[in-house]
């Protein structure tokens, strides 16, 4: 598939959650398409379902009804094993909270997914080093998270998300915990990945100025 062709097709997507007080409808009849190589921003007030939608796009959850189609495949029809394999090959997740292991170095945190999936240690650490050096952290490989700034920790988290070279990056408020300068650095990294690696970026953001830079915007309303 080439840039500009449909990657995701979201069709009449509904997601409900059953709580003690009844059913909470979060997503109701959502329809949109994400083109390969596109930057799509997901915007809306708190509670409108942005993170829920990101989880559905990543196969971390299943819809109540409707479909999330990835290159024509309905993710809800895949077994848990096939979904796990798909995420390993195709999708990298970046979160607002960095989710780094405090006892591990930057190098070890970035290499962890590749090691988890059985890649040879030397190969996994070589890949981690390449990404961290690309992101300006070549001198910080042995530093633990508490020894890194917020922007540096997020760069480690992005390196970890990219260690298996996914073609889709799903980012949940990746600059939300950062100051303006660090946020600009992270967005520059993500923009470069799209430009040079033909990666598709779907990003949750509350920053309207940031959303305005995206190729497409999906606006969600609180139900």
From TrEMBL:
User: Known SMART domains for this protein?
Assistant: AAA (SM00382)
Q: Which SUPFAM superfamilies match?
A: P-loop containing nucleoside triphosphate hydrolases (SSF52540)
The record's annotation in PROSITE patterns points to: ABC_TRANSPORTER_1, ABC_TRANSPORTER_2
**Which Pfam families does this entry report, sorted A to Z?**
ABC_tran
Matches recorded under InterPro entries: AAA+_ATPase, ABC_transporter-like_ATP-bd, ABC_transporter-like_CS, ABC_transpr_LolD-like, MacB-like_ATP-bd, P-loop_NTPase
- One MF term in the entry's GO annotations: ATP hydrolysis activity
Q: Which GO terms describe its cellular component?
A: membrane protein complex; plasma membrane
The alphabetical list of record keywords is:
ATP-binding, Nucleotide-binding, Transport
Taking every annotated instance into account, which residue ranges of this chain make up the domain ABC transporter? Answer: 8-222
The record's listing under CDD domains reads: ABC_MJ0796_LolCDE_FtsE
UniProt record similarity statement? Belongs to the ABC transporter superfamily. Macrolide exporter (TC 3.A.1.122) family.
From the Swiss-Prot or TrEMBL record, give the protein name. Answer: ABC transport system ATP-binding protein
Task: Give the originating organism.
Answer: Oligosphaera ethanolica
Which lineage? Bacteria, Pseudomonadati, Lentisphaerota, Oligosphaeria, Oligosphaerales
């Amino acid at each position: 598939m080439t840039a500009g062709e449909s990657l995701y097709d979201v069709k009449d997507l509904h997601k409900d959650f059953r709580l003690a007080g009844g059913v909470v409808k979060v997503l109701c009849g959502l329809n949109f398409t994400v083109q390969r190589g596109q930057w799509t921003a997901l915007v809306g007030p708190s509670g409108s379902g942005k993170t829920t939608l990101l989880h559905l796009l990543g196969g971390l959850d299943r819809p109540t009804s409707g479909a999330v189609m990835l290159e024509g495949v309905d993710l809800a029809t895949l077994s848990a094993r096939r979904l796990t394999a798909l995420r390993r090959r195709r999708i990298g997740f970046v979160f607002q909270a960095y989710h780094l292991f405090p006892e591990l170095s930057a190098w070890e945190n970035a290499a962890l997914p590749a090691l988890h999936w059985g890649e040879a240690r030397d190969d996994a650490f070589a890949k981690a080093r390449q990404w961290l050096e690309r992101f300006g952290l070549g001198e910080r490989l042995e530093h633990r998270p508490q020894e890194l700034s917020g922007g540096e920790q997020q760069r480690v988290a992005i390196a970890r998300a990219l260690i298996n070279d996914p073609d889709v990056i799903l980012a949940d408020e990746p600059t939300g915990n950062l100051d303006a300068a660090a946020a600009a650095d992270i967005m520059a990294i993500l923009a470069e990945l799209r430009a040079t690696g033909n990666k598709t970026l779907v990003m949750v953001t509350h920053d309207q100025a940031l959303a305005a830079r995206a190729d497409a915007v999906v606006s969600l309303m609180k139900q």
